[in-house]
Design brief:
RNA-DNA hybrid ribonuclease activity; two-stranded antiparallel sheet; RNaseH-like_sf
Amino acid sequence: MRGLQFGRYGLSVSHLFFADDSLIFMDADMESCQRFKGLLYLYSAASGQLVNYHKSKVCFGRNVAREARQQLASFMGVREVENHGKYLGLPSFVGRNKKEFLDQIKNKVWAKMKGWKSSMFSMAGKEVLIKAVVQAIPTYTMSCFRLSKKTISSIHRMAARWRVGNGENVRVLEDPWLPRPVTFKIYDKPLLPANMVVADMKLGDGRWDESFINAVFNHEDAKLILSVPSMGWELEDKIMWHYSKNGEYTVKSGYKMASSLVDEQYQSNDKVLVDWLKALWRFKIPPKIKHFVWKLAYNWIPTNVTLAKRGVAVNKKCERCTSHVEETAIHALWECKRSKEFKVVSGLKDEMKRLKGEDVLSFLMRMARQWDKDKFEFFLVLTWNIWNVRNNVIHGGTAPMAGEMVDWCRTYLTEFQGGGAAAMSRVRSENSKWGAPDLGQMKINVDARVKSGGGVSGIGCVVRESGGRSLYASSTVVNREIAPLQLELQAILLGLQVGIQRKIHRFSIESNYLQAIQLIQRKDEGCLDVDCLLDQIRTLLLYDSVDGISFVFREANRVAHVLGNYALTNNPV
């Protein structure tokens, strides 16, 4: 049998095996078919396996006559097809022109995107569309073929949006340009010309025409439009990747998004838990106990009930008591007869009565409200140790005396808070005071505050000389809610403008927003909504009178912080 020849002097391929599928290449003549059928007969006789001709197919080259095709297909006892369809989502044959084949990938991505009604999802749900669907589709294909730059660019544009610069190339109603995953588009489209661009909604000095925007668009769309930075200092419009800090797509950012997938409903109902866990990290207890409580709040500790739900073959009943009750987290830690001994000795038993139907998180949150901080921290340490005792007993160990363990918990917590915690916070405390500038120089501290849900933001700015005396202070109100990064950059820009306009001979800027400072100081360009602000700040930093910008802890930036807060509740000073 002669296989498929690749070029006059190239390799000849007679067969390709894929798991339980096989492709055989041979000449389209009766002699080759007879030899091949003979080989199949020998294989069946030797192995005891039969070939399923009903599932087998044959296809021919363009130069094989119709009569010959029918005769050979009938002799082989198989069905003739034009091609062998797809294998693992890829077509069996791809010719020189791959455009049609690659367009199928792009069309599949687009069909998935427009099929979802993104306006009905929560913020997390909208991100799932990009994370799970769009990025997962071309994975296998890209491992087999090198996609063209045009195809990659098309797929990228579906999951990206415009970074608005001068707005001359971005269509208001059709292009994705708002910071709103996953469509990045206007939801409630007003009656505007289809070719109207973003630049048409700006005034002569580059600022937004707020009266026009508020009159034409609904409240949510108008709020998002006005949140996009727009000033006289304009850049060119550019496509950006929404899901990375610098606006550039990287494999790391794509992988991070894909690996962070969780159930949408679980995410959308998780706000109470997230808020409580933020408070947890501020407790003065060892990090390992914080992690344990974090897992406990999520019901992730491996009790018998949890293990059974994960498919582990275990008995759900508690192994330490004779109550024949399923071992949930609540039972194992607080309601088991063996655990109650520690509650009695600690003096917390009467205060730890669980309400009917109360889950773990609700119980923890109620205890945190019911007790003062010191008692709740001791309760967490005690709970962590009860879990350790449970594990020790189950794996063949013994339980300590209740009084000894409670005393150990108190000593352990006292020693940690007296020594370890102080050592951990020493670096921060040493840098918590404002540092005066050198003699003859000035220091400008800035800070910004965002009032959540209030539609108001504030910027504080203070200029002080080497002796600590304040020479200038301002508290500026911004009458709309702005993203924290953008607002902090505006605060830094304001500080630079104050120093330059007041003709201060030599001054430096301090801010407690590290991300903003890192963006200003980095060398790579990136692509962000705030690029126009970054460009202005970097230009002003080149002035001879500016001695640079640096990060300080919030404790060392207290005056500017207070001024920013003042703007939220009072008139500007």
